Amino acid sequence: MATEATTTKFQNSDFRQVPQPPDFHPGGDLSPHDGLHFWQFMIAGSIAGCVEHMAMFPVDTVKTRMQALGSCPIKSVGVGHALRSIVKSEGLAGFYRGIGAMGLGAGPAHAVYFSVYEVSKKYFSGGNPNNSAAHAVSGVFATVTSDAVLTPMDMVKQRLQLGNSAAYRGVLDCVKKVLKEEGFGAFYASYRTTVLMNAPFTAVHFATYEAAKRGLIEISPESADDERVIVHATAGAFAGASAAVITTPLDVVKTQLQCQGVCGCDRFKSSSISEVIKTIVQKDGYRGLMRGWIPRMLFHAPAAAICWSTYEAGKSFFQELNDSTESGTVT
């Protein structure tokens, strides 16, 4: 009775609901797709990662060939030359050599990536869903953990992408030979470089994505729900392209470390970043540090668009599933 009286007391027509901005969420630290279980973030992220890398794999192959200095059969930095050389020597199948390794690594790595990002974002946001610094820091935490999962398979993938079937017959053969000839450490030879590359990449990526998404929603808040996929794809593409160009030099170093000794690539005494950079500059000048930036940007712009739209769609699916489950439980 007391509750009913209290409720009636405040149901006054003079009190009007205060309109809230599009990004307002009563819980403070919740976003429109939050309220999910940890495993749901992992599944959504895993699917997004697999779709992203499988769809854009041919472009990644071209980038790897261009960045591997002295590798066979690519001798030029030109995109057109790289494309023609792959088609001439291996046919269309050459663009997908190593895709099995990426399939094995992308799913688990992105599951870790997005789940760590969501948990970190909630922790660091301080109740402010528009905290760009929290998005950037959360992205760094996400990439450090996910790179530990992906780096070994990424190394296998890049060695297979060089197209020398005489060196490795497939994923398993590559893993066995690397373990036997170079030891387990070879799988993580580029980990430090990868983290140093992906930390700023992810910080720029996530901060730019969240800011671009918020800006696009503010332009047309009334149609934000109807244009959700377009918003996520556009913001993701802009973020991916920006971050890709900025971090290309370290990506070239990573490729050199992962492909050393294969197809004529240089072998380095250590995984020192400075040593690799010095070798690249001596061989190809400073322009060598930007080798493959065009396919890298062409990869990350659509890849980020695909990944973010797929990930947000997965989160929306689980949100609706959770809501329907809760409604059924209440009923």
Automatic annotation (TrEMBL):
GO terms for cellular component: mitochondrial membrane. Residues 1-29 are annotated as: Disordered. It comes from the Eukaryota. GO terms for molecular function: ferrous iron transmembrane transporter activity. It is found in: Mitochondrion membrane. Solcar repeats lie at residues 36-123, 130-215, 227-317. Keywords: Membrane, Mitochondrion, Repeat, Transmembrane, Transmembrane helix, Transport. InterPro entries: MCP (IPR002067), MCP_dom_sf (IPR023395), MCP_transmembrane (IPR018108). Residues 1-15 have a biased composition (Polar residues). One of its GO terms (biological process) is iron import into the mitochondrion. This is Mitochondrial substrate carrier family protein. It comes from Theobroma cacao.
